[in-house]
Amino acid sequence: MEPEKPTTFFGLDWRIALGFAVSFVWITGGFLYLASIVGLSQFIHLPTADIGSFLEGAFAPLAFLWLVIGHFMQQKEIVANTRAIFLQEQSARRQEMHAQRDSFFKLQTLVQDQLGSIAAFHYMSLQALIGTEDEDTDALTAEQTLGASSDSAWFIRKMIALAVSNRQDQAKMHEIFFGTELRERHSDNYIKTFRKLLRAAEAVDTDNMVSEALLHGSPAGILYRIILMVQGEQLIDSLMSLSNEPGSGRSMAG
Q1: Residue 254 near residue 232, CB atoms below 8 Å
Q2: Which residues cross the membrane (predicted)?
Q3: What residue numbers bound the domain in which 188 lies?
């Protein structure tokens, strides 16, 4: 909304215009008083001290009037400067927020690549468990290269698919994510890395839209929630909306 424009007369602020009008009326009245009552010739021949005292008394009200007008004009300028400073501060805050968000989205790309790499190493460590130890090594290497170059969520989605296919077997789920020291380390690293990403998102997003999208709308967030549920010994049916079993809607652990 545009600021309210001040009332003007002949291009002057109404206070200045009022001051000029009052001054003109006051001086004109004083001149007429001298001309009709005192007489200009008699006034001119008065002693200098008397003339000074008369002018001092005559112009004192005008001096006070312009002092008051100056005070209000100064107050108006202070209000305008305060508003300008406030707008500049808001603009600086918006620019800072945009800069922080730009930095976050650049960081998000790097962190998602890191999460994809963790998921890739985790998936590679599962080949013997899921019965694909004879799978072509070159094919797995090609998939890992794909995940690292163009699709950082490739192995994250493969881990999600693996979890969904074994969702009814709690022991197998625990074996997938925490069965060995290496898998447990991969799962812990994934949780810690994703939590750092969430904290960074919350710091630049007051409405939590970005953090909610990361947690509930991205493959990285879904895998994070799956790991937390497995860590808390809960089935993932409620997470993937694949079952309406009683108790499947319990909150995530951690």
Answers
A1: yes
A2: 12-34, 54-73
A3: 97-240
Look at the chain and report how many structural domains it folds into: 2
On whether residue 114 sits in a domain, the answer given is yes
- pLDDT category, 3, cuts 50, 70, 90? very low
Among the candidates 88, 107, 129, a domain finishes at: 88
Break the chain down into helix, strand, coil percent, rounded to 5: 75, 0, 25
| Residues 88, 174 contacting (CB under 8 angstroms) | no
The better pLDDT of the pair 5, 98 is held by 98
**Residue 43 token pair:** 């006034």
Instruction: Give the tokens for residue 203.
Output: 């710091």
Q: Which two tokens stand for residue 220?
A: 């990285």
pLDDT digits (tens, 9 = 90+) for 148-194: 556 788 899 999 999 999 888 888 999 999 989 999 999 999 999 99
**Per-residue model confidence as pLDDT tens digits over 84-113:** 888 888 888 888 777 877 888 888 888 988
Mean pLDDT of the chain: 78
**Domain limit, last residue, from 31, 64, 88:** 88
Torsion of CA 30, 35, 39, 41, to 10 degrees: 100
Q: Is 5 left (phi over 0), alpha (psi -120 to 50) or beta?
A: beta
Rounded CA gap, 138 and 227, in Å?
Answer: 28
Give yes or no for a contact between 250 and 234, defined as CB atoms under 8 angstroms apart: yes
What the block records as the tokens of 231 is 């860590």
| Contact of 159 with 124, CB cutoff 8 Å | no
* Count of positions (residues) in the chain: 254
Distance CA 184, CA 48 (A): 104
